[in-house]
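ok here's Fido domain-containing protein:
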Amino acid sequence: MSDPLSVIARLPGVPEAVEEARQAVDRLYRHRVLRRASPAVSAESSLRGARASAALEGADVPLDVLRRDEAHDPVVQGALRASAESGRLGATWRRAPRQVLARLHTVAATGLADQAVLGRPRADDTAPDPYGLGPAPGAKEAAARVDALVELLSTPTKAPALVLAAVVHAELAVVRPFGTADGVVARAAERLTLVEYGLDPKSLAAVEVGHLELPYAEGLRAYLTGTGDGVGQWVRQCASAVTLGVREATAVCEALQRG
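and the structure:
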């Protein structure tokens, strides 16, 4: 059986970047605060991740506004709902990923799209281009790409979870299968993959914060080339996002330790 993810995992610089991210996660998990406050760190990471995901869509709201529940922008609200919903969808992700994607879109796109299309693949051959990637694949091709992604998620692989998560993220972001809130769905799916496939089972690393700090659209454009160099660049960028997300979570741990 072919294992395309293993091929990606061996691209130049990818093994080293993935290993660096894994070691960063391992160090985070040894932090003494996590013995008693792991749920609190996960909740704070989720909040910061949702804020960063919305910011990548152009809706940048300060954390203190989110804490006071004063952010009424539908993009921000959708990112918050998707982040919260991810925590309830873990058990379903491996078994029924299409169902999870539909649910993530339903919560992320409420207030942005008509209720009738929430959770449904787009029927239009065009889709918004928030990251300057160029035209989206037509509806038929987008559906076929999602089918292939669903199959990939259920096919055994020797590739690290981070490689799978990077491909899940990029495919959803560039294919734009729903036509609204696709970026929010893509980032939620990436984090869900990192959790459910074993890299970050407690959902501590705020990987979305890492993506906000990096040249996000540039990385997706590199992936779109389909070349080994381009795909490798994107996976290395995702590994860097995890490492930066660990740094964010470590800062949360240190703050809790100081009281």
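+1. Residues 180 and 201 are 28 Å apart (CA to CA).
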